[in-house]
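Appendix B. Chain record.
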Amino acid sequence: MNNLTFHKIHQPSCSKGWVLCFHHVGGSRLDYFFWRRLHDVEVWVAEFPNRQPQTLANSNLICADQWLNEIITFIEKTYSEHSLPGSLFGMSLGAQIAFQTGCKLENLGLAETVKKIFIASALAPIQFIVHDISHFLSADDNWMAHEFNLTKNNIFDQHIDIVIKDIIDRIRFDYHVYKSWQSFPVSPCNIPMTGFFGNSDPFLDSNTIDLWSEMTYGEFTYHLLDGGHFFTANSLQRLLNIFHDEVILI
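Structure tokens predicted for this chain:
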């Protein structure tokens, strides 16, 4: 199977809105477990399939066009006949998918299905260029060797090599996935957008926020939160509070 899977993380008894989330490289639906705190918002996560090394041997199994169509079909089947306001959320490279999903919905005349796009810790699409992922893979190898060295004498971590290898496999698959999303044109949409950025994120430059503001003809707002690229470790509750207030006001 090479289809995306859509996991419902939270189903409130009385919904006031819904959000479809796209995880960062190496992430999963588990990263959104605490989004259940959004007591009146339905939370979904789109998760990549079959993230194993053998999948990379067949490049046909990684098809951004196919997955984008699956996302659109899921949204149409699940919410096209509902009046609930919907939104998209993407973390890091997942923001590229959220943005392209919004653009695709708009091109299909389905823009009313999604009222807002939320992006977090992400380069603007015009900055998003992955010419060669070899340097990413080299960095991962160095990280894995470091982790092995730290844990090799710890009897409680005797299976850490299996855990780390699984993480690396997922990360490498995701790099190839995201590289395939570069084929989409970069042009603004009309859907309003909100950005979340860590105030000490080393991967974002001073132009990132301005460039994101040019990706929509609608309203663009942003929030600087305490932390680095994965600021949710420090500021998750604040993000959820802001997100909830904006979704309810849509």
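Further analysis of this model is presented in Appendix C.
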